[in-house]
Design brief:
mainly alpha; Rhopdopsin 7-helix transmembrane proteins; 8 helices
Length: 256
């Protein structure tokens, strides 16, 4: 019995250490690598975005992926280390981080959708479309940010209030936010982006196969193939690594 108790205690300690420092590791490493990515994409070599409009989306994704790290991940570290979270520290922090926890991942996901759309257009259209102009890509990014700001703006208006004991309640007085918004987030953050990405990349793969039987130059064919395959891998990794957590939040959420 004593040996079993010691083993269980050791497991609990190891789990607590992992739960404490793994989110911090994600925040530090994610901030470092996303910042490095943004800096590289801003170098002179990549400034000619007229040839690679995808760079606009990739720069924006690097920024929003950094912001995304300082939501739940950082709160997990603070909770296990100091016993509090920024989301429950004050009403202002509660509104801000409740908003960011949904806004940043949704924007990041839909920027990836438009990267897929850009790849599809670049391979399927001979002539440039409205979406293949640098200025219009920036308009699309602004529209994505604006739309998801409006969708999640209710957090600033209605969410978070003080309980009678002085603690911060993350719910709203007028309606129940959780788990409803987790389910909505599952649709906006994972399901719809997943459907669009699969549709666009299905067409991308089709056009890459078709290029093998055309007279397009070898260098251009290699450029299209390498860029598209890289983005396909990144997209599927994004979906695989984000969907399980979002599904758990949407269907297995329990209020504390």
């Amino acid at each position: 019995m004593i040996m079993s108790y010691n083993k269980n205690s050791s497991d609990i300690v190891e789990y607590n250490l992992f739960a404490t420092y793994y989110p911090l590791f994600l925040v530090i490493s994610g901030t470092l690598f996303n910042s490095l990515t943004f800096i590289i994409l801003c170098r002179r070599k990549f400034r000619d975005t007229s040839k690679q409009l995808t760079l606009h989306y990739m720069r924006a994704i690097a920024i929003f992926d950094i912001l995304m790290l300082y939501g739940r991940n950082f709160d997990h570290f603070l909770y296990y280390t100091y016993g509090f979270t920024l989301q429950t520290y004050s009403i202002s922090f509660c509104k801000l981080f409740s908003f960011l926890n949904y806004f940043t991942p949704q924007v990041s996901a839909w920027l990836r959708v438009f990267i897929c759309f850009d790849r599809y257009l670049s391979l399927s259209r001979i002539h440039k479309t409205w979406f293949a102009q640098s200025r219009n890509v920036l308009i699309i990014i602004i529209c994505i940010v604006t739309i998801f700001t409006l969708i999640n703006f209710h957090f600033f208006l209605f969410a978070c209030y003080d309980n009678d004991d002085g603690t911060v309640n993350m719910e709203a007085r007028l309606y129940e936010i959780y788990p409803l918004w987790n389910s909505i987030n599952l649709v906006l953050y994972n399901c719809l982006p997943f459907i669009f990405m699969i549709a666009f990349y299905g067409n991308v793969i089709h056009h890459l196969i078709r290029f093998r039987h055309t007279n397009i130059s070898q260098n251009l064919r290699r450029q299209y193939r390498s860029m598209s395959i890289t983005l396909i891998i990144i997209t599927f990794l994004f979906l695989i690594m984000t969907m399980p957590a979002t599904i758990c939040s949407g269907f297995f959420y329990t209020s504390t």
